[in-house]
Write a structure and sequence with these properties.
Helix content: 25-40%
Number of helices: 7
Distance between the termini: 48 Å
CATH class of the domain at 7-35 and 97-203: Alpha Beta
CATH topology of the domain at 7-35 and 97-203: Rossmann fold
Bound molecules: guanosine-5'-monophosphate
Shape: globular
Number of strands: 9
């Protein structure tokens, strides 16, 4: 991805920090973003659709895709395999950005393959609230809740590798923060550099078939 290509935005969090809601809101606020649909060996939850939240595959299919070198990154999370297909970068129209909802292992791999990528980590306001949110998920049994709580703790240990850390205390405020991060990152100097250089070349009369209108009558007037 060049500095003029879509901005890769990685969003990670321990499970239960509200990342799914936040990324959905970000997509609604900036519709020219695209969500990278990962492959996973986990079973679909209620309301999840193959090809929308994930491409659901079995372990054998997933291992086959690894063999083919089809993944930009992949990792084992909660005992299941998850991976971002290389095809996700080129799928469809050229968006303003691509959102990668992946764990810290995947974030590290994408950051090293795509140094331009911006990584945001979302934290819950407290561990008590995180536990409550995990228990609120009807699809998970007690053992799963306990396991996910332990995994969440270990996930938080990796906050130091992210460019931004956002505490999701209140969803409206957290959405504004995430949207602001994306908008500010779009304006980073290196992302606008090619555009600025083009303007300079155009202004100096290079690269165009005719000089800019302001210089058309000859040399610019000298200051009085
Ligand atoms: P869930 O099963 O709750 O949808 O996701 C579990 C964890 O897997 C989340 O932390 C999510 O960000 C992560 N995850 C989802 N897709 C990918 C992926 O393609 N690669 C990696 N490394 N992690 C992923």
């Amino acid at each position: 991805m060049s500095s003029e290509g879509p901005l890769p935005l990685i969003v990670s969090s321990p499970s239960g920090a509200g990342k799914t809601t936040l990324t959905a809101r970000l997509l609604k606020e900036i519709p020219q973003l695209r969500f990278s649909v990962s492959h996973t060996t986990r079973k679909p939850r209620q309301n999840e659709q193959n090809g929308r939240e994930y491409h659901f595959v079995d372990r054998q299919q997933f291992l086959g895709l690894i063999e083919q070198g089809a993944f930009l990154e992949w990792a084992e999370v909660h005992g299941n395999l998850y991976g971002t297909g290389k095809a996700e970068l080129d799928r469809g129209e050229r968006p303003r950005g691509i959102i990668f909802d992946i764990d810290h292992q995947g974030a590290r791999q994408i950051k090293s393959a795509e140094p331009d990528a911006v990584a945001v980590f979302i934290l819950p306001p407290s561990m008590a609230i995180l536990e409550q949110r995990l228990r609120g998920r009807a699809s998970e049994d007690e053992e799963t809740v306990q396991r996910r709580f332990g995994v969440a703790l270990r996930e938080i240990e990796h906050y130091g590798m992210f460019d931004y850390v956002l505490v999701n205390e209140e969803i409206e405020e957290a959405t504004k923060q995430l949207v602001s991060i994306f908008r500010a990152e779009e304006c980073r100097r290196h992302r606008a550099a090619r555009h600025a250089e083009r303007l300079l070349a155009e202004g100096r009369g290079f690269g165009g078939s005719k000089p800019p209108a302001v210089f058309a009558g000859g040399a610019p007037p000298s200051p009085k």
